[in-house]
What does this fold into?
Amino acid sequence: MARYWLRIGPLHALSQVLGWCSLIVAAGVSYHYARENINQRRKAQELAGARPPEKLDWRERIEQQEKQSAQTSTGGSTPVANASSQSSLRGGR
It folds into this structure.
């Protein structure tokens, strides 16, 4: 072990520690600014009405998307019916 330290020297270990510390500090600073930006964007979306104020479970989110798609669909046709009619127009099954 002593030979290893004599061969690489203490400056090598110091430069490794300095490199890791600078990497950790840079990651922390970038996380801070990214988090700040995300929070500002969420507040702006909530004020604009584009983001619901409550958190939804995945089941509730799917139900909400299905309700919205049912309201926006024209003629009462389902997406499956639309896909099958389009494939029959192209000569598919």
Q: What stands out?
A: The radius of gyration is 28 Å. The mean pLDDT is 77. Residues 10-48 form the longest helix (39 residues).
